[in-house]
Amino acid sequence: MSLPQNYKTAGSRREFLASWLGAAVFWKPRNRRKLAGVDFERIRAGAGSRRYLLIHGNEETARQVLTEHMKKASGTAWLAAGHARNAPFLAGELDPNRMFSRDGAERNLRALNPAWSEAHLLNGLLILDRTRRQLTSALRPGAGDVLIAVHNNRDYSVNDELAASNATALNDRDNPHEFCLCTDEGDFQLLSKGPYNVVLQNRPGGAEDGSMSRYAVRAGFRYANLEVAMGKAEKQRAMLEWLDRTLPAPRR
Ligand SMILES: [Zn+2]
Q: Which candidate, 22, 52, 89, 94, has a CA 20 to 30 Å from the CA of 102?
């Protein structure tokens, strides 16, 4: 299959040449963006309104699978440019999947940066309040479409999400590390007919943790989170293709 015409990746020859020539000071790579203090690589593939996300930089299986997937998908992918789970933030660190609410960000910054003063913490929260929208508008899919996030796990599994879910379909019980968490009931109905584990969280209870799934419910867009054990690229590839195929495009 041929690549969409405007398929681009940060590893392009142009970017390589620019850095080799030492022109980086004057030349801003088109496919790198700082959003709410976190560096992202953007892959645009066609004019599709679908969005894709790799938010934890150390989840390299998911990064590889999503990068490959964008050669045939239509939409825009945002991939954390760093290779650690947490992003560097104000001489400390931040889990980027805990910054979608002030409460979640505060809990996360306190936990990760115990040596910070209250003033330092407050400054961090104010910066996030001012810049969070950069990230949420980049990740928001076009009207009626879906944001698909890819993650890898080691210990975490679907069993950790059962209590918080409004509906579950454990169609692949022997592989609890592989599952999809979605926030739209219609999407759940479609996905639950497939061969994989699926949970629906459209009315999440408990403490607000600042994660994307809760943000998507509040903001009113469809979200699907694909979890696969680290290293299982083949399975993640198959599940990402299944998700993209099964989730309907917006009705026009
Ligand atoms: Zn993750």
A: 52
The string of pLDDT tens digits covering residues 1-10 is: 444 544 455 4
Q: How far is the centre of ligand 1, averaged over its atoms, from the C-alpha of 153 (Å)?
A: 7
What domain count does the chain have? 1
Sign of CA dihedral 21, 71, 192, 174: negative
Report yes or no on 186 lying in a domain. Answer: yes
List pLDDT tens digits, range 78-87: 999 999 999 9
Pairwise CA distance, residues 88 & 153, whole Å: 21
Tokens of residue 44, six digits: 């645009």
Closest of 193, 189, 194, 196 to residue 235, by C-alpha: 196
Asked if residue 39 belongs to a domain, the reply is yes
Assigned domain for 150 exists: yes
Q: Is the pLDDT of residue 215 over 80?
A: yes
C-alpha 79 – ligand 1 centre gap (Å): 12
What pLDDT shows up at residue 2? 47
Q: How far is the CA of 59 from the centre of ligand 1 (A)?
A: 7
Structural domain harbouring 209: 13-85+141-246
